[in-house]
Amino acid sequence: MTVSHHVRVYPSSEPLPREEQLAWKIAEVAADPVAVEPEVVEMIINRIIDNASVAAASLTRAPIVAARGQAFSHPVSRGGQGATVFGAPLDERTSPEWAAWANGVAVRELDYHDTFLAAEYSHPGDNIPAILAVAQHTGKDGQALVRGIATGYEIQVDLVKAISLHKHKIDHVAHLGPSAAAGIGTLLDLDVETIYQAVGQALHTTTATRQSRKGEISTWKAHAPAFAGKMAVEAVDRAMRGQTSPSPIYEGEDGVIAWMLDGKDASYDVPLPAAGEAKRGILDTYTKEHSAEYQAQAIIDLARRLGTENPALRDPENIVSIVLHTSHHTHNVIGSGANDPQKYDPTASRETLDHSVPYIFTVALQDGAWHHVDSYAPERAARPDTVALWHKVTTAEDAEWTRRYHSTDPAEKAFGGRVEITLADGTTVTDEIAVADAHPLGARPFAREDYIRKFRILAEPVLEPAEIERFLTLVQRLPELTAAEVEELSIIAAPGVLASTDAAARPGLF
């Protein structure tokens, strides 16, 4: 049974006992020793594979090179044996917070892993790098790792269901700091008091504005969740040493809700598992078949289908206008409603283009496919016929698609839209799609074989065949892994893959 916790702001004159605070309730869920259900274990394995897939594809990209360089500038801390970094040999370790940093950047760089969308937006797989790094550093086995990841997903999903951050231009990683801290607390079997303090500190240090995802989007977009994971590791360390956090962090008169979210009169109802209830939040989440913002997943599938069935739609000479009728979020964040001219700029950064649904629809329509590198290549974005067609694509908010986007009924919750294409001869073409093909309710729901195929496709250019098989064999035994085997839960780049990029990397302070 799920319990709904009513959360509001309390003036300092009305003390709120810690046992009634949201951070304490989160800590109680984290400390609950409930078993992880087999279906959840299987999905955790899928998502570790998914993270490794997108990390492999990112190993030589500049943000990952920089983050990896920073990580290896720091030695293993004295309290454990350190943690691995994607791409590096297994015996090359760094301190866990820096491993969480480097691996978190690698996982997020291509914006290509799992997602959960409700009142807020999230990539719950961002929890895994921090929890795994601490597991390796502290010598935890596969069962402990499973329990920690299940908590991280559960807490993030529950917060995302109830509390909107983006409405107040606060970046979504403000839900990630607390969830990762809670997951680490479960992993380490910490008591409620310690986890409570860590959750509060993690939230306090990970609130930032959404400018990182606005206009000309910078490389910080990939770093923001990694920073939240790193802060969660550090928060747990401080809490374990007896250090306390601002309290009540959510409900206080000068707390997050009062000044960063809906204000002093706000209230939320946050669903959390009851004592003894299994943590199933990960089962509400879904991954990406395509490397683009999640709201673009269904749009890519729609565009691929339209272009394949009617190739004439690919020629801008045949098109007067293309209007995507979609949800408020899609229109205002990755659509023309954002009023970002960069979303129509062929010289824009990859980070900007993967948040431009007009661009994404155009390329998927013309190519009948989507590729995590080729679809964003500067020469692809600058192709004259693409630019001409791209500038005819706009979005419009549709109340019904917005309602379905926010529906709590999984059967009608939708992230797609309806397209209306006006042709030069005066006729129109219309079509629509509710969810991506890979969504659990889509045309081709992702299963284990799809996660493995995605991993092979993305890993083959940078990992040797034997390494691909080693990782896949190991991760699929996750619940039975010994502590020594958890230390091997990483991917090793083929000889020479990292050498040139790492050697050419710009030096920093460390």
UniProtKB/TrEMBL annotation:
* MmgE/PrpD N-terminal domain ranges (all copies): 20-268
Against SUPFAM superfamilies, the record matches this protein to:
2-methylcitrate dehydratase PrpD (SSF103378)
Which Pfam family is an annotated match for this chain, by its short name? MmgE_PrpD_N
All copies of domain MmgE/PrpD C-terminal, residue ranges = 290-478
Superkingdom per UniProt: Bacteria
Database matches in Gene3D superfamilies: 2-methylcitrate dehydratase PrpD (1.10.4100.10)
The family assignment reads:
Belongs to the PrpD family.
Its recorded name reads MmgE/PrpD family protein
Can you name the source organism?
A: Microbacterium istanbulense
